[in-house]
TrEMBL record:
Residues 279-290 have a biased composition (Basic and acidic residues). InterPro entries: LSM_dom_sf (IPR010920), MscS_archaea/bacteria_type (IPR045275), MscS_beta-dom_sf (IPR023408), MscS_channel_2nd (IPR006685), MscS_channel_TM-2 (IPR011014). This is Mechanosensitive ion channel family protein. Residues 266-290 are annotated as: Disordered. GO terms for molecular function: mechanosensitive monoatomic ion channel activity. It comes from the Bacteria. The chain crosses the membrane at residues 20-41, 53-74, 80-100. It comes from Adlercreutzia muris.
Length: 290
């Protein structure tokens, strides 16, 4: 504690005018360095896949830069021994940590969630106990923000995120439509291609497509061939409209027996005429005049 009193006495008897000018210059430099560091950190997080683009890393970097700047101000402007101050604050630091126990647990929880990549911005999740479902917007030093389908924002403490079961759901912009195709096996592949083309044309009018429609079959039932039409769009908010457009477009091909009957009815007369002998055109016979 004597070290703390000595530091406080030096702080009181400091040359305030020069100290304030020096502190203002150091704070200005710290502000510029902080902005530049945060800018490059954001670009690095957006480009690299090693870490998620959570703002908790930006918050930690910003706090670190400012703590270093404050340390320079105390050391250069007010002749404060920063190392001695940290040593003297040992007992006080314990009391402060106990008072900010929830804040520290949320900070550590946010770092744990982000570094382990268990949850990152853009994930569609469901919380086990609370039942909160939505897309993770950001992970800050205290909360994880989740946005549901109605646009409501829910702030979940990071400590809860680390102690609760979290289920990762399929992305909202990823659409899967279950279908049963009632065509014969010979036309199954052609029908699948027709479905994919029709869905792509319909969905492209609603939203930009990130991953084109694809049909995959999983079972043969008494009703037909069971499968799934899957595609990914750029705008998750238009997933419902894209699903509606795709279903309307593929409906004639899913129940393909109607199309087949129409094609068979058109081809039947042609096949019947093909089996008949071709008609021979004869020139008219002129009768002799009496």
């Amino acid at each position: 504690m004597e070290q703390l009193f000595d530091i406080f006495e030096k702080f009181i008897h400091a040359d305030w005018f020069n100290s304030l000018i020096g502190a203002a210059i150091i704070f200005a430099v710290t502000f510029v360095v902080c902005r530049i560091t945060v800018y490059f950190a954001r670009r690095l997080l957006n480009r690299t896949s090693l870490l998620p683009s959570s703002s908790i890393f930006i918050n930690v970097i910003r706090a670190t830069v400012w703590l270093i700047g404050i340390g320079f101000v105390l050391s250069l402007c007010f002749n404060v021994n920063v190392n001695g101050m940290i040593t003297g604050l040992g007992v006080v630091g314990i009391a402060i940590s106990l008072g900010f126990q929830d804040t520290l647990s949320n900070l550590i929880g946010g770092l744990q969630v982000s570094l382990s990549r268990s949850v990152e911005p853009g994930d569609n999740i469901r919380m086990g106990s609370s039942g909160v479902t939505g897309v993770v917007k950001d992970v800050t030093w205290r909360y994880t923000t989740v946005v549901d389908s109605s646009g409501n924002h829910t702030n979940i403490p990071n400590a809860v995120m680390t102690s609760t079961a979290v289920t990762r759901l399929a992305p909202l912009n990823s659409v899967s439509i279950a279908l049963i195709v009632t065509t014969n096996s010979e036309r199954l592949t052609a029908t699948a291609h027709h479905i994919e083309d029709a869905a792509e044309k319909a969905v492209s009018r609603v939203s930009k497509i990130k991953k084109g429609p694809s049909v995959s079959f999983s079972a043969i039932t008494e009703h037909g061939f069971q499968g799934t039409l899957s595609f990914t769009i750029a705008n998750a908010s238009k997933a419902g409209n894209a699903t509606d457009a795709a279903i309307r477009a593929i409906a004639p091909y899913v129940h393909n027996h109607l199309v087949e009957e129409e094609m068979d009815s058109l081809s039947a007369p042609a096949e019947a005429n093909a089996g008949r002998p071709a008609a021979v055109e004869r020139e008219p016979i002129e009768m002799p005049q009496a």
